[in-house]
């Protein structure tokens, strides 16, 4: 079996070009015309690769690296081994990411499998409207009245429902489904995403539970990215909204009527119940649960596995179940740990007395 390389570099910048791109200072005596053809971690970098270090814990790996050049902070300059060109930077990882983006633009978003144009194996309704430059791959279905903007890619077996609007330069991954939705420009929906299905709404009763019609939409603004197998329910009586620039990880559940602000970060396995509201730049760690109808303020950060049952103020950092200010949570956790340690010590002492 072969050993394929999935991403090939699209450029081979010189050290001078990398210094200009990243704002780094090239070490004196280094050849500014030396070319870099790859990037790699400290322990796997080869003689044509760029690497970086931004933590002292990796200094042993730096000492042994075979990289051509290394982005490094001023305090670690002396640790760069002979033969490795130092590029001094206050933020080495940021510089490394800039070079990654230059070398591997194809890794920025999923790529077409079969190439440009509308595949003969796709099913595009006669009343759908596609601008020039739309790619539709085999098995995809686009319903009546749907409109898709220039440069958008619709992957294999994806389903775009009737009257859906999708903007320009979007990517709809394989097997995704988008219904009852308005999608902005430069949006990335990874494989298996589900957008616009009805929310979880029932009128509970002693004889059974009557389904409540969900008549809202999903509105996804520009530059949003949604990870694989995430679900975003359409609104019940108003729209579910995902704000501009928000990034959502895999396996997230967003309920009906939820309003998420701009540039939020929502990590894997988060669940957000119906009618919750998130301000701009909110961060939710993995497996956070958010109750319905609560509000999380602008810039708030919630630690992984926390449970949000009440409103959270803007700018705060929270953790625990129920979520509370993180310093308070830390103090409580420490107090509980100390109590447990004391109880364990007393138990061992009592057991020792019984033995004697």
TrEMBL record:
The organism's taxonomic lineage, starting at the top: Bacteria, Pseudomonadati, Pseudomonadota, Alphaproteobacteria, Hyphomicrobiales
Class of enzymatic activity (EC top level): transferase
Catalytic activity annotation: a UDP-3-O-[(3R)-3-hydroxyacyl]-alpha-D-glucosamine + a (3R)-hydroxyacyl-[ACP] = a UDP-2-N,3-O-bis[(3R)-3-hydroxyacyl]-alpha-D-glucosamine + holo-[ACP] + H(+)
Name recorded for this polypeptide: UDP-3-O-acylglucosamine N-acyltransferase
Gene3D superfamilies, per database record: Hexapeptide repeat proteins, MurE/MurF, N-terminal domain
Pfam family, one: LpxD
Keyword Lipid biosynthesis among UniProt keywords: yes
Similarity-based family: Belongs to the transferase hexapeptide repeat family. LpxD subfamily.
GO molecular function term, any single one: UDP-3-O-[(3R)-3-hydroxyacyl]-glucosamine N-acyltransferase activity
Record's keyword terms, sorted: Acyltransferase, Lipid A biosynthesis, Lipid biosynthesis, Lipid metabolism, Repeat, Transferase
Function of the protein: Catalyzes the N-acylation of UDP-3-O-acylglucosamine using 3-hydroxyacyl-ACP as the acyl donor. Is involved in the biosynthesis of lipid A, a phosphorylated glycolipid that anchors the lipopolysaccharide to the outer membrane of the cell.
Entry-linked InterPro entries: Hexapep, Hexapep_transf_CS, LpxD, Trimer_LpxA-like_sf, UDP_GlcNAc_AcTrfase_non-rep
Domain UDP-3-O-[3-hydroxymyristoyl] glucosamine N-acyltransferase non-repeat region: 34-102
Subunit structure: Homotrimer.
EC annotation from Swiss-Prot or TrEMBL: 2.3.1.191
Signal sequence segment: none
Pathway involvement of the protein, from the record: Bacterial outer membrane biogenesis; LPS lipid A biosynthesis
Catalytic residues of the enzyme: 256
């Amino acid at each position: 079996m072969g050993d394929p390389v999935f991403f090939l570099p699209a450029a081979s910048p010189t050290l001078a070009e990398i210094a200009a791109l990243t704002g780094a200072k090239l070490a004196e005596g280094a050849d500014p015309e030396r070319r870099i053809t790859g990037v790699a971690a400290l322990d796997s970098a080869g003689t044509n690769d760029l690497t970086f270090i931004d933590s002292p814990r990796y200094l042993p790996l730096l000492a042994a690296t075979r990289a051509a050049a290394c982005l490094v902070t001023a305090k670690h300059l002396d640790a760069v081994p002979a033969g490795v060109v130092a590029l001094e930077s206050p933020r080495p990882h940021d510089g490394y990411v800039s070079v990654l983006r230059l070398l591997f633009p194809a890794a920025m978003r999923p790529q077409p499998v079969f190439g440009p144009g509308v595949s003969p194996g796709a099913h595009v309704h006669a009343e759908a409207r596609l601008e020039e430059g739309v790619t539709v791959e085999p098995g995809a279905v686009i319903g009546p009245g749907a409109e898709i903007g220039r440069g958008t890619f619709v992957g294999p077996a994806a389903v775009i429902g009737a009257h859906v609007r999708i903007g320009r330069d979007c990517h709809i991954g394989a097997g995704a489904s988008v219904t009852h939705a308005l999608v902005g420009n430069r949006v990335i929906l990874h494989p298996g995403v589900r957008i616009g299905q009805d929310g979880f709404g029932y009128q509970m009763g002693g004889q059974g539970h009557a389904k409540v019609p969900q008549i809202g939409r999903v509105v996804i603004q520009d530059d949003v990215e949604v990870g694989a197998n995430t679900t975003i329910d359409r609104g019940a009586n108003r729209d579910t909204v995902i704000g501009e620039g928000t990034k959502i990880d895999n396996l997230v559940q967003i309920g009906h009527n939820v309003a998420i602000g701009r540039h939020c970060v929502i990590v894997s396995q988060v669940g957000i119940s119906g009618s919750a509201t998130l301000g701009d730049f909110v961060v939710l760690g993995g497996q956070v649960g958010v109750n319905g109808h609560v509000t999380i303020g602008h810039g708030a950060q919630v630690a992984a596995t926390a449970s949000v049952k009440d409103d959270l103020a803007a700018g705060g950092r929270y953790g625990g179940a129920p979520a509370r200010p993180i310093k308070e949570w830390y103090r409580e956790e420490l107090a509980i740990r100390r109590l447990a340690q004391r109880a364990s010590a007393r138990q061992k002492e009592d057991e020792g007395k019984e033995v004697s």
